[in-house]
Specification:
With about 500 residues, the chain is α/β, with parallel strands linked by helices. It contains 19 helices and 6 strands. Strands 1, 2, 3, 4, 5 and 6 form a 6-stranded mixed beta sheet that branches. Helix 10 runs antiparallel to helix 12. The protein binds iron/sulfur cluster (SF4).
C-alpha cells in the first residue's frame, strides 16, 4: 500500500478494514470487494481470458445494477474475435455460483454476457448444454455465459485492493466511468444547468400531455385520465398490464357499484385473484371466498378481457407496490363518483404551494379498505395497525406524470390560458420526487457528485430523465456517437436567466 509511513489517517482506518485477512494468499475476497474490483477494473486488463482461453476486452464494465438481477448492466465486452457485445455481467466468487444461485433458471439473467468469478474451479456444466441429457429432462435454462476468473489477474495484491476499495460506495461512479457530457455539464453555471433541465422537462411534459390529448380524441378525457392513472399505478414493471386493464374500463366499470365489486372484477380480469385459499390466514380466506363469489358471476361476461397472470412482473416488487394492492386502491377511486371533479377542484383551487401535495393526497387517499388497509398481501398476517394504500411519495409521481399534464392539456385545448399557466407553474415548482434507479444512475453519469442541487425540483428530475431518453438510450456505456456533449458545449444562454 502507498500510504506514507507514519500517516496518521492510514492508521485510523486500518482496524476497520479486512485487508490484513486478505494478505493470506489463499484468501477469498468478499463478493462486494470483487464487484468493486470489477467496477474500477483493477485488473491486468491486457491479460484477461475466459475459462476456455479466449481473450476478453472490456470496453466498459457496466453500471452497478440497483434493481436486483445481474450485478452490472450495460457492460461492453469483446470476447475472442467476436463482435463487441453489450449486456449484463454477473459476479460470483465461484463459477458454480451460476447454478447454485439459480441464475441458470432466472430469466432476468438471460442477457448476461460474462460471468466474472474469483476462481473458476468447478465451471458448471449446464444441463441445457449437456448433449446426453434427454430433451424432456432439460429444464429451461439460461445458457452458461463465458467465465472470466480474476484470481490471477489483479493489478495489485488483494490486501492492497481491499484497503483501497472496500469502503468505496459501490453505487457511486468513478470519474472515468462518467458520461462524456459530464465535463461540459460541469462547466455550466447553476442557472444555465437549471435552464437546460427546464427546457428538457418542458419537452417531457408536453410529450405526456400530447399523448393524453391523442387518447382523449379517440376516447374521452375521462378515459385518458384513467389509463394514465392505471399506468402510473403499475410503476415501470407493470405499466402495460395496468394500461390494458384501464382500456377495458368501459366494460368492467358498468354496473360495478361498490369498491368491493369493482375490486373483485379487477382482480379477476387481471388474473391476480388467487385460485386457492391460503389455508393459513383466516381473514384472507374469508375475503377471497367473497371475491370469488362476486367474480364467479361476472367471469363469463368479461372472458374476452382477461389477462394471464404471466403478464405481470413481481420480481423485486415491494409488497406495498403489489398490483393487487394498487388495483384495490383504483377500485375505491372508481367507486367514488366525485373523484374526477375532486381532481378538477384541486386544480382550480387557490392555495399556497406547500399545501398542494397534502391537498392532492387527500383526494387520492382512501379512508379504509376492509382488507388491504390491514394486509400487505393475501398471504401476510393481519397488521396491528391500518396502513395507507398510498404514500405521499407516490402522489408526486401521480401529480407530475398524470394530473398536471392532464389538467394542462385540457386547459390548453379549452383556451383557458390563465389556468394553463397556473398548472405549468405548479409543475415547475413541485418539489423533487423520491429517487429512482434511472435517476440515480443519470445523476451520477451526467452530473457527478457536484451538481445535485440542480435536482431540487421534480421538473429538473424530469428534465434529466428526458436527456437519458433522448441521448443515453441511443448510445452505449462509452457514449458512442452521442451528440449531447457537443450540443452542451456549443450552447450558450445569457448567464443568470431564470424563470
Ligand atoms: S450517452 Fe450522451 S447523454 Fe448519456 S452519459 Fe453519455 S454523453 Fe451523456
Amino acid at each position: 500500500m502507498f500510504a506514507p509511513a507514519g500517516n496518521f489517517y492510514a492508521t485510523w482506518r486500518a482496524p476497520f478494514t479486512v485487508a490484513p485477512v486478505l494478505r493470506d494468499e489463499n484468501a477469498v475476497p468478499a463478493e462486494r470487494l470483487l464487484q468493486a474490483i470489477w467496477k474500477h477494473q483493477r485488473l491486468k486488463r491486457d491479460r484477461l481470458e475466459t475459462a476456455d482461453g479466449k481473450t476478453v476486452r472490456v470496453l466498459h464494465p457496466g453500471f452497478v445494477s440497483v434493481e436486483g438481477g445481474p450485478d452490472f448492466c450495460g457492460a461492453m465486452v469483446q470476447i475472442g474475435g467476436d463482435a463487441v457485445r453489450a449486456g449484463d455481467v454477473e459476479i460470483d466468487l465461484r463459477s458454480a455460483g451460476w447454478r447454485a444461485h439459480g441464475h441458470d433458471r432466472n430469466p432476468n439473467f438471460a442477457n448476461v454476457i460474462l460471468h466474472v468469478v474469483w476462481d473458476e474451479a468447478g465451471v458448471p456444466v449446464s444441463a441445457g448444454q449437456n448433449p446426453k441429457a434427454p430433451d424432456r429432462l432439460k429444464p429451461r435454462q439460461q445458457p452458461l455465459p463465458p467465465t472470466l476468473s480474476l484470481k490471477d489477474r489483479l493489478d495489485a495484491p488483494l490486501a492492497e485492493l481491499g484497503l483501497a476499495l472496500e469502503n468505496e460506495p459501490l453505487r457511486s461512479l468513478p470519474e472515468n466511468l462518467r458520461g462524456k457530457c459530464s465535463a461540459p455539464l460541469r462547466e455550466l453555471s447553476e442557472s444555465q444547468l437549471a435552464e437546460l433541465l427546464r427546457a428538457a422537462a418542458q419537452v417531457r411534459f408536453a410529450g405526456k400531455a400530447g399523448a393524453m390529448l391523442a387518447r382523449a380524441r379517440n376516447s374521452s378525457w375521462e378515459q385518458a385520465l384513467w389509463e394514465n392513472l392505471f399506468r402510473a399505478l403499475g410503476y415501470k414493471h407493470n405499466a402495460w398490464p395496468m394500461q390494458n386493464l384501464a382500456e377495458t374500463r368501459p366494460r368492467w366499470e358498468r354496473g360495478g357499484d361498490s369498491a368491493f365489486q369493482l375490486q373483485a372484477r379487477l382482480l379477476g380480469t387481471s388474473g391476480l385473484l388467487p385460485d386457492e385459499l391460503t389455508r393459513a390466514q383466516k381473514g384472507s380466506d374469508t375475503f377471497l371466498r367473497r371475491a370469488w363469489d362476486a367474480w364467479w358471476r361476472d367471469r363469463d361476461e368479461f372472458a374476452d378481457c382477461l389477462l394471464p397472470r404471466s403478464a405481470w412482473r413481481f420480481y423485486g416488487l415491494r409488497p406495498a407496490n403489489h398490483p393487487q394492492r394498487r388495483l384495490a386502491l383504483a377500485s375505491h377511486w372508481l367507486a367514488d363518483r366525485s373523484f374526477i371533479s375532486q381532481l378538477e377542484a384541486w386544480g382550480a383551487a387557490v392555495m399556497p404551494d406547500k399545501k398542494l401535495l397534502p391537498a392532492l393526497l387527500e383526494v387520492f387517499q382512501v379512508e379504509r379498505d376492509e382488507f388491504w388497509s390491514w394486509h400487505w398481501t393475501f398471504k401476510s398476517a393481519r397488521l396491528p395497525n391500518p396502513q395507507p394504500l398510498l404514500g405521499a411519495a407516490r402522489v408526486t409521481d401521480l401529480a407530475i406524470n398524470v394530473v398536471l399534464p392532464w389538467l394542462w392539456v385540457r386547459a390548453r385545448e379549452g383556451g383557458n390560458e390563465q389556468f394553463r399557466s397556473e398548472v405549468e407553474r405548479r409543475f415547475f415548482a413541485w418539489p423533487a420526487a423520491a429517487d429512482n434507479s434511472v435517476l440515480k444512475l443519470a445523476r451520477q453519469r451526467l452530473l457527478g457528485a457536484g451538481k445535485t442541487r440542480a435536482l431540487r425540483t421534480a421538473a429538473a428530475q424530469q428534465g434529466l430523465m428526458q436527456v437519458v431518453r433522448d441521448f443515453c438510450v441511443h448510445s452505449n456505456a462509452v457514449c458512442d456517437h452521442c451528440r449531447f456533449p457537443e450540443l452542451v458545449r456549443g450552447w450558450s444562454i445569457p448567464e443568470g436567466r431564470s424563470h
